[in-house]
Amino acid sequence: MKLNRLPELQRREFLRRASALGVAGTAAPWALSLAGIGEAAAATAPGDYKALVCVFLYGGNDYGNTLVPYDDASYAAYASIRQALATPRDSLAATALPVGADGRQMALAPQFGRLKGLWDAGKLAVQLNIGTLVQPTTLAQYKARSVPLPPKLFSHNDQQSVWQASSPEGATSGWGGRMGDLFLGGNTTSTFTCINASGNAVYMSGKQAVQYQVSTSGAVAINGITKSLYGSQACSTALRALITGADRTHLMEAELNRVVKRSVDAQATLSAALAGVPALTTPFDTSASLSNQLAMVAKLIAARQALGVSRQVFFVSIGGFDLHDFLVAQHPGLLTQINDALASFYAATVELGVANQVTTFTASDFGRTLTSNGDGSDHGWGSHHVVMGGAVKGGRFYGALPSVSVNGPDDVGQGRLLPTTSVDQLAATLATWMGVSATDLPTVLPQIGNYTQKDLGYF
């Protein structure tokens, strides 16, 4: 007899979603995977640790002022197109990069001085003109709409989802989380496989792995049970019994309480692990959110042995990049925060002795127009990003450098770049480095079969 499994599937889905909820208005890391939370039987060899860190720039970073044309001809074209938005050429000398084989030269933004040092040291690379694609796409195919394209191009929510999940808005899992699914069994405590230090992002949700959320101070506690409630320890004890006790006759109530108890236990485990690691000597800018998030990631990596993890995926973010206005006034400050946060984080991985085992990359909704709208730039498509780490073959570009033009061979209009490298190719390269097999890549990236080149050669 064939059994109807729908009620069981509905129960599991309810519990998966309920595990992400907070209690009494207090945020808490409830998102603990029912399938992966138990202690894994498998363990990896000591020292076999790798971590991947996504730094997401919400709003759509302006590529034109992040990597700037520097040779005379290219800069003249850039300045003519950007007009008042153009970065002054004399401010780029200290961050100018080597001349390419085609005679063209680029410079990092003036605010990227510390990242230029990592480029020179071979620890940072630039991925050129990367963006969301369904398959390799030419300009002629784009204009003819003869190949499938990402849904709702130039839309923030949709392109954030496609970047993070390879699926439109409404996706329930991202490629970071799906990668985490494969690592659950290799981590002694699987709860800490996917950790988000900036809130919630589909990138970090898997089919089984669910992101564990932390603040820049560490584990998020349920205040009502970690300290007296309304001045009464008895109330605190009663609340703990209410939300963690397993003596429930209703199956769903009992299961939910077990999930909550695991969350409470995880908070205690994480707090103890962080308390047991020495303070980092690497300085971080404590006035900047991104630096604080990456400082917490560094501390979590320092606690990796106490947490029993050999593979981890992290997510941090910074917003403010939707600069239709005030680009010249506000963009440099955002780039300064990225420069300082990433450089300090790399220094912290060196201090911890794991620089070769941690890779960090930037991502964003999309690039922006090369043309000016008067005081800013508008939504675009392709953009430039950085990949950083001790294992990265840095000091070089990956991908194709686009022409500096409007309505040129790389442009779908207004200097919106048609990506020549797909996010899926970037993800496949990073996943392979993390240890995902070629057989498992389609599980992480369902569209990767559309690409012949699945490894961009960073490592």
Automatic annotation (TrEMBL):
InterPro entries linked: DUF1501, TAT_signal
PROSITE patterns: TAT (PS51318)
Domain of life (superkingdom): Bacteria
UniProt-listed Pfam families: DUF1501
Protein name, per record: DUF1501 domain-containing protein
Organism for this UniProt entry: Pelomonas cellulosilytica
